[in-house]
């Protein structure tokens, strides 16, 4: 196995990690900003108020995009396993 092959595998793993985590992190960030703005306007400073909407938003993204996320991960792992014989 050459250095280039190792870098290709690591790059692919980082890319798939970013692709899969991106939507979850974006929704958590968006919901957090909206809830923080609402808290600032209404002057309600309850810590659990930020946690529950983020949890609901992330769960909704997993329900809506979960099959796509699993399919992407399975495709990447299948490709990795297919490439193993050529990694000598």
TrEMBL record:
Pfam family, one: Bac_export_3
GO BP of this protein: bacterial-type flagellum assembly; protein secretion
Residue ranges of coiled coil: none
Topology relative to the membrane: Multi-pass membrane protein
Subcellular location: Cell membrane; Bacterial flagellum basal body
Keyword tags: Bacterial flagellum, Cell membrane, Cell projection, Cilium, Flagellum, Membrane, Transmembrane, Transmembrane helix
Principal location: membrane
Sequence intervals crossing the membrane: 12-38, 50-70
Domain of life of the native organism: Bacteria
One GO cellular component term: bacterial-type flagellum basal body
Function: Role in flagellar biosynthesis.
Record-stated family: Belongs to the FliQ/MopD/SpaQ family.
Protein name: Flagellar biosynthetic protein FliQ
Naturally occurring in which organism (per UniProt): Egibacter rhizosphaerae
